[in-house]
């Protein structure tokens, strides 16, 4: 279809005119976006069908990645890239007076996730399809994704994200695959004539789950996998019994709205569990709908149930879909008539689980009563799983009550979803080497000792297609021109760039590309935020969710410190810097919102003070999202990865930035440890406490923030500026909470402890940046070693070690 530019232009214009009834010159950019997406979609549908058939007939195992979040971002550009027609289309549009990146902006950014966890799921889908692995996503079609962030007086305001408003080009509704999910009611049991126990539901509420499928195109269009997003609607029987419902619920519309509420919005909390009943409803809805459709597909194969785990792998992304375990048991036993032992063995060999955090506030637990009322049969099964599990522990080690109490799934009136996930799976993995070590040695030590063979590490990754090929075409072109095309399929081959680390011409080209990307970002910042930034300054970037442990406040304190130094001595030599932030705070996270207000206040002050404005600029970009990340990352010099050691399980932003030639300024935390190992000590800036030191402070409780404050003038100065009259506080009490977090509550995240080593590392950066030759060489080292962090390798490891799936041959080669 798009084999040549001319051909594309012809088809495109024809399509545009017939769809809109306008001439090419009358059509708007929105029209052009839709016409182009339509063309792409049509071509995909054919490939999609072929892929599905090939998977069904190949007899290969398929993996289903269950996740409450998929942070997909925009799809048009990525689909064109993976279909191999990006250049043809871009040039063709140019002839027609259209610019592809502008059309891409017309697409809604699918923000069905909070941050790293959801973006990981999206990168994994891209890698699965690109490796021709039969792997699909299972998620929820929230009608409101992650909120849109605006700043009013420097404070965050949340606006609803109606991303489906103009219709979404990439989804296909599949009415024929709808299923029903049951909530509430009572369970009645009876024995049949053979003495087998059966369970029936009384007064339960039935909700219709309708799937919307999104095609996931692999690189070079090798296969088109599926992301299936479920939407809640009133059940058919409800529609037929409208009159009765009017009577029972007062009004039908209200009742309908209650049902649809299940998929109405994404919970906007990252690394924090809300514990709301609606959230549990969402989780069970995802699990039950997803499993019913997978089982229906398996049944079409006409195989015995004992083959299930040879054809199906079920992965749970964090504990949110942990109800897969009891729901699968329910379907096998209550619907398909299997016995407990057989159902349990199939369940365990099908399910695997990824742990994403050791933060206690993120651990998911549910009060027994909540689960019992919402999904009574599921609760019975969890109880039985727990009984049998505790029994087996007793048999292993009779009399060790402590161990049983520690490992039990149900304890103190709550259900521990992590325990349920571990007990019900054959594999448990952490997301970076350090994180997995902490799981084994500390957080899940007792489980690790009980089932050492279940535990393994899979360091996170990112798709180099979106984050390099698409986000940074000029750098990609330079790489290809230098080492050939091979790295696109084998990203590790970016290492061939190492041969050019002393090549002045190459390093200059690298520099030019970074400069141009910085100029582009500077223009964007000027247009969007009205702030003029200097493209020759260091672009120092801190983009990720706003969270105490991610320590945006430490970055802010450092900027306050620089301001103080410049004010004390306006002629002080300082390498110019632009500090760029992007971060959303959970709407109820008071501390995080104060940090946003502080950074915006600092920006107000330093951007306008004649003593500082030419040396430091601060920009907090609104509404951090996948598309904004794609703009910022190629223009970054310094990547801030400054979490309190032991707290960031992996991080993936660190990998995206490294791949685009930024130098990491980081603690030895999460995957920073592996980045450090890959690039070597001379191409990264590390600082701060080690994870061992942090964990031991937590254990001994001997850290004293007040001591840091009392004994260090620089620290005292910035901390006082939060509390007392200062250019930032203006005598207001706005930042008192931040002061209290640091002093009254003893600085839970060790900002003051790490302050001096952070400042020292920043000074080293300012010094090193002046030696452009050295800086460019370090940048090259980062790019060259970044291929190892492609999610293609991560996914290959999941496929080999956990899912046991291999490449599917397409019918047409
Ligand atoms: C990659 C990404 C994240 C994760 O960033 P971390 O720095 O690893 O926390 C969050 N949000 C978006 C939009 C991303 O693209």
TrEMBL record:
The keyword rRNA-binding does not apply. It catalyses: [(1->4)-alpha-D-glucosyl](n) + phosphate = [(1->4)-alpha-D-glucosyl](n-1) + alpha-D-glucose 1-phosphate. Keywords: Carbohydrate metabolism, Glycosyltransferase, Pyridoxal phosphate, Transferase. The keyword Transferase applies. Gene3D superfamilies: Glycogen Phosphorylase B. Its EC number is 2.4.1.1. It comes from the Bacteria. Belongs to the glycogen phosphorylase family. This is Alpha-1,4 glucan phosphorylase. It comes from Pontibacillus salipaludis. The gene is glgP.
């Amino acid at each position: 279809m798009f084999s040549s530019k001319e051909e594309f232009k012809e088809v495109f214009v024809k399509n545009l005119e017939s769809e809109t009834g306008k001439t090419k010159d009358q059509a708007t950019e929105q029209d052009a976006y839709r016409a182009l997406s339509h063309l792409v979609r049509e071509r995909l549908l054919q490939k999609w069908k072929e892929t599905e058939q090939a998977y069904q007939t190949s007899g290969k195992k398929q993996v289903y990645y269950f996740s409450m979040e998929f942070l997909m971002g925009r799809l048009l550009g990525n689909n064109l890239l993976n279909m191999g027609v990006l250049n043809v289309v871009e040039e063709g549009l140019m002839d027609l007076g259209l610019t592809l990146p502008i059309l891409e902006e017309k697409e809604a950014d699918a923000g069905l996730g909070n941050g790293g966890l959801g973006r990981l799921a999206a990168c994994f889908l891209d890698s699965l399809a690109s490796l021709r692995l039969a792997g699909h996503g299972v998620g929820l079609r929230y009608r409101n994704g992650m909120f849109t962030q605006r700043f009013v007086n420097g404070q965050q305001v949340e606006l609803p994200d109606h991303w489906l408003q103009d219709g979404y080009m990439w989804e296909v509704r599949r009415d024929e695959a709808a299923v029903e999910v049951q909530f509430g009611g009572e369970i009645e049991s009876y024995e049949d004539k053979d003495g087998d126990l059966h369970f029936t539901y009384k007064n339960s509420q039935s909700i219709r789950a309708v799937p919307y499928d999104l095609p996931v195109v692999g690189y070079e269009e090798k296969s088109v996998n599926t992301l299936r997003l479920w939407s809640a609607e009133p059940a058919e029987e409800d529609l037929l019994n409208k009159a009765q419902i009017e009577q029972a619920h007062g009004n039908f519309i209200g009742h309908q709205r209650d049902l649809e509420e299940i998929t109405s919005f994404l919970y906007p909390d990252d690394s924090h569990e809300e514990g709301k009943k609606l959230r549990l409803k969402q989780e069970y809805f995802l699990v039950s709908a997803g499993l019913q459709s997978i089982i229906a597909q398996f049944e079409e194969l006409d195989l015995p149930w004992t083959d299930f785990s040879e054809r199906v792998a079920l992965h749970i992304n964090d504990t949110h879909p942990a109800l897969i375990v009891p729901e699968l048991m329910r379907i096998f036993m209550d619907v398909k008539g299997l016995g407990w032992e057989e159902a349990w063995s199939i369940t365990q060999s099908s399910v695997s689980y990824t742990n994403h955090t050791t933060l206690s506030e993120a651990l998911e637990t549910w009060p027994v009563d909540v689960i019992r009322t919402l999904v009574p049969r599921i609760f019975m099964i969890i109880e039985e799983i727990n009984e049998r599990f505790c029994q087996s522990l007793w048999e292993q080690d009779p009399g060790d009550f402590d161990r049983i109490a520690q490992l039990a799934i149900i304890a103190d009136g709550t259900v521990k979803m992590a325990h349920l996930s571990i007990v019900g799976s054959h594999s448990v993995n952490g997301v970076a080497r350090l994180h997995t070590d902490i799981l084994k040695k500390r957080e899940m030590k007792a489980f690790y000792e009980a089932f050492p063979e279940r535990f393994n590490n899979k360091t996170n990754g990112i798709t180099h297609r979106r984050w390099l090929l698409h986000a940074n075409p000029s750098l990609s072109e330079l790489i290809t021109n230098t080492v050939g095309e091979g790295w696109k399929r084998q990203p590790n081959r970016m290492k061939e760039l190492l041969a050019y680390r002393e090549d002045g011409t190459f390093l200059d080209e690298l520099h030019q590309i970074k400069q141009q990307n910085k100029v582009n970002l500077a223009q964007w910042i000027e247009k969007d935020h009205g702030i003029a930034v200097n493209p020759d300054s260091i672009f120092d970037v801190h983009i990720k969710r706003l969270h105490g442990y991610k320590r945006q406040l430490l970055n802010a304190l450092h900027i306050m410190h620089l301001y103080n130094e410049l004010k004390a001595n306006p002629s002080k030599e300082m390498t110019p810097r632009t500090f760029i932030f992007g971060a959303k705070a959970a709407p109820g996270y008071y501390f995080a919102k104060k940090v946003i207000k502080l950074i915006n206040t600092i920006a107000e002050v330093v951007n306008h003070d004649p003593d500082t404005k030419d040396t430091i600029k601060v920009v907090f970009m609104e509404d951090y999202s996948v598309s904004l990340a794609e703009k910022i990352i190629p223009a970054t010099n310094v990547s801030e990865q400054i979490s309190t050691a032991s707290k960031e399980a992996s991080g993936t932003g660190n990998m995206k930035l490294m791949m685009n030639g930024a130098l990491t300024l980081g603690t030895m935390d999460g995957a920073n440890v592996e980045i450090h190992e890959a690039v070597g000590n001379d191409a990264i800036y590390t600082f701060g406490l080690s994870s061992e030191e942090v964990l031991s402070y937590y254990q001994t409780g001997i850290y004293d923030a007040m001591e840091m404050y009392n004994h260090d003038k620089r620290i005292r100065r910035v901390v006082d500026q939060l509390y007392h009259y200062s250019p930032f506080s203006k005598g207001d009490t706005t930042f008192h909470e931040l002061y209290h977090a640091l002093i009254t509550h003893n600085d839970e995240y060790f900002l003051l402890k790490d302050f001096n080593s952070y400042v020292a590392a920043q000074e080293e950066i300012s010094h090193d940046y002046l030696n452009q030759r050295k800086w460019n060489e370090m940048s090259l080292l980062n790019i060259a070693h970044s291929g190892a962090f492609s999610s293609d390798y991560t996914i290959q490891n999941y496929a080999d070690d956990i899912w046991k799936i291999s490449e599917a041959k397409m019918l047409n080669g």
